[in-house]
Design goal:
heterodimer; A: about 190 residues; Arc Repressor Mutant, subunit A; 2 domains; globular; B: mainly alpha; Methane Monooxygenase Hydroxylase, Chain G, domain 1; 11 helices; 6 strands; elongated
Chain lengths: ~190, ~350
Amino acid sequence: MQLPPKLEESFRLLSKGRHISSLDGEVFNSLAQETDRYRAVFDALGYELVDDPQGFFYFNGTRNGLNRTVSEFALFTFIMVDWLSDNDTSIETGLFGTVRPLEELPHLQSDRYRGYMRQAGGDDADNLRRIIQRMDGAGFLRLCDEKIQFLAPTRRILKVCLALGKKSAEVATMPVIENDDEEQEGAIA
Amino acid sequence: MEVTTLLSANGLLAPSPEADGEWEIPPAVTDFILHLAKRQRLLAPGELRGLLLDMESEIADFGRLTLTQNVNLLRQCALRLINSIQRAQRFSSEHHGAVVSEVTRIKIREDNRSLRERYEFIKLLYERHALPMQDLVDVDGMLVRLLDRLLGLISQAEPLIDVGGGPTPISRLRAHVLQLKREARDLFHESFNEVLPLYNALRQDHELAAAAATMLEVAARKGLDAWDIGTHLAAPSFRAENLFNDYGIEDYLHGVQAHSAEEPTPLISLATAGIERSPDLLHLEDVIERLKENAPVPDILAWLFQGYSEQPESELLCAFVDIAADESLSTSHADAETESVFRGVTYTYYPLGIELATAA
């Protein structure tokens, strides 16, 4: 059996939680060309390689210890979507068709967004940069010359946003039944 | 005051019903001015439907007059229908122009609306204008049904006022009906096709924006953990032992690399018990070589019967003939007859023998 050519590099990236898209060059091309071979080896190692139809690869992992990190990624993206819906012509173009300087990001520019950011470690520039760098590492966006560009894997976050947002809105519109039980707090999912 | 009186006398101004001393421009004049200014406006679905209901009534009159063969009234009715059809044509043309204009303004971002406002507008355009219009002009829509019915009546009315092939109100009416039928369908479908993709794109954006706003609102009330987003956006948890420099995995992968699958056992082999084995093929060269090694052989046929007893006699006899004809062998026949028995058959012959390995 011949192992795929970029096995070591792709495993190193994917196992760290990186989403590999066309920006990753040869690794992405190799994964795209020999997906089945990669999948067979990763399956043997206990990892599930996901070939997302939107044009990226990732390991479907467990939630252990990373819930907080992905929540921060999601928060960063949701704020961006919310801001674009009021200030740009199209979310699609605003996210994926625009390279945006860090100083133009909306996350620290209003009290409301700062309030959200405080839940993700702080409403200061250092924390914002920390989140951006981690998203860069995970392949959701590209940070270059103090500018960011969202990449295809962000669509995974948007998909989850749509699903959870819809579900949450449905729950919010359901009639409330009064009872003596303590109000249930918890997950929206 | 004189100007107002003059305009009012000519029907260009009308007293406002809302207050004394106020005037307003009659709708017909407004339409005319808009037409001169080449400004299109969106047509309310009710406008076309109202016009079609008027036409329906006139078409019923047209049918009755055709039956009673009242030619003068039929001419007047045809002229009224032409007028209605021209109005419908103008409506559809203006509506199409207005839709294209609005869509273009949105596409080139000239409308200065936020995403939410833009979605609300395109939603209104789609649901209040495009869809009802589509219903009217579809194949089985009200407009098409009316026009088809009118065309049928025109065919019956035409002979009544035929003036030898010249244009008549009826023939003009037919031309207008056909033109409206063609143009209305094309224009409304074109408008619909302009609106639909934009509506879909903006709806997706709007749904996403609404979902993001909901999620942010949940975060504001209950915190980020309330999302439980890790369940839906699970990432692999990184551990050092996942790396390839972990010897266990490295060994495993090398084992996988070195693995070669064993050839499967054949379902049946030559040595399988109970299965009769076919004899090996008889190669003449090998037989001659062996014959030379065994020379001198006084009776080659008997030698063949004895040495290749597993072969069929036909093979052996062929080999015998070939050997006899082989000039490289020094063979000769004996003078006396002899007999050999092979598989129950007795062969009587003058034996062919070989003295030397090669011919002299």
